[in-house]
Structure formats: C-alpha cells, structure tokens
Design brief:
The chain has one helix spanning 138-141, and strands spanning 7-18, 31-36, 50-58, 73-91, 95-101, 109-117, 152-154. By secondary structure, it is mainly beta. The termini are far apart.
Length: 174
C-alpha cells in the first residue's frame, strides 16, 4: 500500500533555532527552521498529516499566465522538509504552531515549526487532535497571522528530492 501524497504547505521563512533538550550523538542539538503559513493548505492539517514545505519568494519575473490584478505573486522553492506533523508546539485562539519531523535524513534540518492562523476545518482539522486545548503564548499573541486569499503561486513540477552525492571517481585529467 502506498502512502498518500504529501500536503503541500506554502511557507515564508521567519528564523531558525536549536532544540538543546534533544542533543544528538555528535553533541549537536537538532536544527529547527521556523516558518509562517500565509496560504491556506489544500486540506486542513492534523497530527500525522504528511506535509511538504515549499518556500514562497516574491516573484521577480511575472509569467505571462499570471493575472495583473493580483497583488501578490510568488515563486516557490523546495526547502527539503517533508514529514509528518508530530505535535502542537504552541496554540492560542487565533494561531497555532505545529512541529514537523523532517524525514529527509540527509537534510541538516531535523524539525520545522510552522505558524498558521487557527481556523477550524480550514487550516486545521477539528478531529485531528489539534484543537483539544489552547493556551496563551507570548510569541503567537504578538504576531498577526493572516491568510492571503488572492496570491498567485508559480509552482513548477519538480523531481523527487535527492541527497547530495559525491562523484564516484575523480574527474579524468584534461
């Protein structure tokens, strides 16, 4: 049985941090990238949802098929974070921060945290173990997270992610 296709989540970078309570074998704490989610996911997220993050970048060149009426046009870039939503890191009545465990083992980023507006059955599923309890959070209460409804996204087809490889033999001399 094949696993379901990942849910594409369009994100904007905010910052990175370390998770010192989970020091790994090499003595380095796991690296966490933090993102905001300005575009509504194709389906509501829940604990266990398998997601793929695509970074939004303002489009420098507007392809001819983009309308000129939209205020926001974006290009996308694969940040190589694919994996399940494993927990709710922070939750308020207005916003959530979800933690994703990256299953791409060759990536230096082990976890990602995505902050998104708390809109039941639109951004998050009520039955997904996410909306059972909310609590005040200083970082989420100070930021206003809003969805962009009129954004245009250029998301070209991509090859599956491949780990970096080393050449099997040195280049021949010239």
């Amino acid at each position: 049985m094949s696993s379901p296709a990942p849910i594409t989540v369009y994100v904007k970078w905010t910052h990175q941090s370390l998770m010192p309570m989970l020091v790994q074998d090499a003595g380095q704490p796991p690296l966490i990238y933090h993102y905001d989610v300005p575009i509504c996911p194709a389906e509501p997220l829940r604990i266990g949802s398998f997601v793929k993050l695509l970074l939004l970048s303002n489009a420098v060149y507007r392809p001819p098929f983009f309308s000129t009426a939209s205020g926001n046009a974006y290009d996308t870039y694969d940040v190589h974070i694919h994996g399940p939503v494993i927990n709710v890191h922070e939750a308020t009545d207005h916003a959530l921060t979800l933690t994703i465990r990256n299953t791409l083992t060759w990536s230096p980023v082990q976890y990602a945290r995505i902050s998104l507006p708390h809109i039941p059955n639109l951004t998050v599923a009520i039955d997904g173990g996410i909306l059972t309890r909310t609590r005040p959070s200083s970082s989420l209460n100070t930021r206003l997270l809003e969805l962009e409804y009129n954004a245009e996204i250029y998301d070209p087809p991509r090859s599956p992610p491949c780990p970096p490889t080393e050449p099997s033999a040195p280049f021949p001399p010239r």
